[in-house]
Amino acid sequence: MPSRKFADGEVVMGRWPGSVLYYEVQVTSYDDVAHLYTVKYKDGTELALKESDIRSQSSFKHRKSQSSSSSPSRRSSSRSRSRSRSPGRPAKGRRRSASQSREHKDDKKKIIQETSLALAVLVLFKPSENNTKRYNGEPESTEKNDTSCIILEQKLKPDLEVKRVLEQYSLRSRKDDKKTEEIFSEKKTFVAVKPIEKVPSKKKELEFGGRIGTFMLVFLLPATVFYLLLMCKQDDPSLLNFPPLPALESLWEWRVFGVFLLWFFLQAIFYLLPIGKVVEGLPLSSGRKLQYRINGVYAFILTAAAIGALLYFQFELHYLYDHFMQFAVSAAAFSLALSIYLYVRSLKAPEEELAPGGNSGYFIYDFFTGHELNPRIGNFDLKYFCELRPGLIGWVVINLAMLLAEMKIHSLSMPSLSMILVNSFQLLYVVDALWNEEAILTTMDITHDGFGFMLAFGDLVWVPFVYSLQAYYLVGHPTTITWPVAVAITVLNCVGYYIFRSANSQKNNFRRNPADPKLANLKFIPTATGKGLLVTGWWGFVRHPNYLGDIIMALAWSLPCGFNHILPYFYVIYFICLLVHREARDEHHCKQKYGLAWERYCQRVPYRIFPYVY
């Protein structure tokens, strides 16, 4: 294992990701597993850099003191060069003649040329988006509602970089330069001996309770799913009435497992069809962008046609309800096998393809969170496919099967009003997700989390079999609601959906094109990464307005089930816990990514999800 080159607390020059610019940073820690240095910029931004992206300060200062003899505006590095060739330097011992005033005028011209040259170089080489120094100014100058303000500030603000370029392209005499270098070397010596506070090294932070927590979740998540499904089958699904455990042989049927495999590979075929546009995802740590085919809506339409054909040929879709537990066991077994495959193949993956959060070096933790960020078989992206296709579309199919099962079991000519509301609300949610499929490329699941047991089990088991809990509950526990109550629940769901969709659209449009004239009324806080943090609109109301809309919709999905039991409300309770935990993770990542800009944003928008509450 190669030894580390830079020590904790050492001040070095770090390259800003995606650029050729280096800034002064301080090393805070080193990851022995990933071989990455965690460095802190002056504005508080923390990033992980490779050793090849870090250089010592001495190398930069040494280059600064040198100059190229090929440039007429720089100091000559050759002492043997004739001084008489330099128009701004009289020969040694020669006194000024009577033409001093004329030379003084020439000096003024040279100063003007010097300034013009320096400003030209500054315009060409001054960074616009990756300059962390410009965000360390006064707070009132950091909030903007027009990107032209940023460009104007870059062109007109005479900061320290002007002085640096003026010194670099100076036309002064060597004698003056020598004095400047002596003064600079004295300052450099003073800075070098100045003690730097040692930052203690920190281990890689583990989420979900670390190794013990993830080990328990591997067993707790499947147990929770099976417990909820068994409870829904009981006549009295109260929490104190624990369901009897079924026989193990009744939980498995190869025919059911075959049907699940058929469903999974049918969605894979729809995903591979050459229909729909191809878009690029966000840049990876290496700067490369992966391509994704956006055809989720087409897959949904083809699935609806296939289900319609099965119903036309009188296929009993309530077979899904009769074998619901066996389908859940089959999906869990498949997700476990998929997780093992993902972990094994990730052991051979290059280091730059590993997930930031799933590269801890601990087997159970990496197995749960996902070791590889974007596992692909050719152009087939396994994580992206599982995120929306088999589980999300399967959720709608399960709801439809529950609707048909309710009609058959209770001999109804049409489904109950409660079942219609649950199916309609959740159908709208799924169609919206597929219609805005491209937006998922910017979510934490795609950009940060690896593909392991957590996402595999969540996408293939938790989403279709837990999110459909209300419809499954209504089959065995019919609930009658009046039309005024149904209208009130519908209004609540529409309010939640409006907040959810408008907030996400506002964020996605701003990320895609901040200079869009339609967004000119939005104010934002610029950050060192070049992105802005919205402080008006929904994102100035709370920090995660999309989560607020999600929770309101989750409540609307549970209300049609009545208030006889708390079981149908498991989804909204779980969802609040999930989004609060995800919000905490997001806060942690944003604080590291945006530094002081995120702290200013939190001061401007103090509430996280629930206004005036949390």
Q: Concise description?
A:
This protein has helices at residues 57-65, 100-125, 147-156, 160-168, 174-193, 210-233, 254-272, 296-312, 319-322, 324-346, 363-369, 382-409, 417-435, 444-447, 453-466, 469-476, 483-512, 545-558, 570-594, 596-604, and strands at residues 11-15, 22-31, 36-41, 46-49, 54-55, 277-280, 291-294, 376-377, 380-381, 524-526, 532-534. With 614 residues, it is an alpha+beta fold. The protein folds into three domains: 10-57, SH3 type barrels; 208-480, no CATH class; 481-613, no CATH class.
What does this structure look like?
Residues 101-110 have a biased composition (Basic and acidic residues). Residues 66-75 have a biased composition (Low complexity). This is Delta(14)-sterol reductase LBR. The chain crosses the membrane at residues 212-231, 251-273, 294-313, 325-344, 455-475, 481-500, 521-542, 562-581. It is a multi-pass membrane protein. There is one protein chain. The protein is of the alpha+beta class. It has 3 domains: 10-57, SH3 type barrels; 208-480, no CATH class; 481-613, no CATH class. Helices cover 52% and strands 7% of the residues. The chain is built from 20 helices and 11 strands. It has helices at residues 57-65, 100-125, 147-156, 160-168, 174-193, 210-233, 254-272, 296-312, 319-322, 324-346, 363-369, 382-409, 417-435, 444-447, 453-466, 469-476, 483-512, 545-558, 570-594, 596-604; strands at 11-15, 22-31, 36-41, 46-49, 54-55, 277-280, 291-294, 376-377, 380-381, 524-526, 532-534. Strands 4-3-2-1-5 form a 5-stranded antiparallel sheet. Strands 6-7 form a two-stranded antiparallel ribbon. The protein has a two-stranded antiparallel ribbon with strand order 8-9. Helix 6 (210-233) crosses helix 11, helix 12 packs parallel to helix 16 and helix 19 (570-594) packs across helix 20. The longest helix is centred in the last third of the chain and has 30 residues, at 483-512. It is globular and about 85 Å long.
